Amino acid sequence: MSDLLSSLGLSQLAKIGDLLQRRKNVAERLLDRLAGSPYFDLPSVLSGNVHTWHLFVVRLNLERLTIDRDRFIKALAAENIGCSVHFIPVHRHPFFKPYGVTAGDYPQCNEYYERCVSLPIFPDMTENDVDDVVTALDRIARYYSKK
Q1: What is the spatial distance between Cα 63 and Cα 117, in angstroms, rounded to a whole number?
Q2: pTM here?
Q3: Residue 124 dihedral angles phi and psi, to the nearest 5°
Q4: pLDDT above 70 covers what percent of the chain?
Q5: What are phi and psi of 70, to 5 degrees?
Q6: Per-residue pLDDT for 103 more than 80?
Q7: Cα(60)–Cα(53) distance, rounded to whole angstroms?
């Protein structure tokens, strides 16, 4: 690690408590606003554990929607909400193709991957930002809801 990166890291460590608390506050607001939605499975924290809320990943209940995850992400982008999929299962990376690994070898990984969406979360996210994300999620889910 360079001196510059070390210096940056040290300055961030001095603020880590505040940054983690702010992320926790944002996550709690997201959890509170999305609680009870039939369209999303929300992240949880096991008792006795501390979550850093580096990511806020929800799983789409695709059985209740008429679109897939990729179209849901595009719909969020149309609502000016940036989101992504952070973790692609290892067996889907091109490196493993020559080894004959197929999607069928890991059905649970694929099922999770096809449903997960990483929503925006960052320490400077305001309550209005959170509300905008939740409003967009709700609007899209209701529009594409299986009636």
Answers
A1: 16
A2: 0.88
A3: -90, 10
A4: 100
A5: -65, -40
A6: no
A7: 19
Q: Which domain holds residue 101?
A: 3-143
pLDDT in tens, 16-62: 999 999 999 999 999 999 999 999 999 999 999 999 999 999 999 99
List, in order, residues 6 or more apart from 113 with CB less than 8 Å away: 85, 87, 88, 89, 92
The total number of structural domains in the chain stands at 1
CA separation for the pair 49, 41 (Å, rounded) = 19
- Provide the CATH number for the domain around residue 134: 3.90.1150.10
Instruction: Give the torsion sign (CA, 88, 91, 95, 98).
Output: negative
Which residue's entry shows tokens 């059905």?
Answer: 107
C-beta neighbour count of 133 within 10 angstroms: 26
Look-up: residue for tokens 């400077």?
A: 124
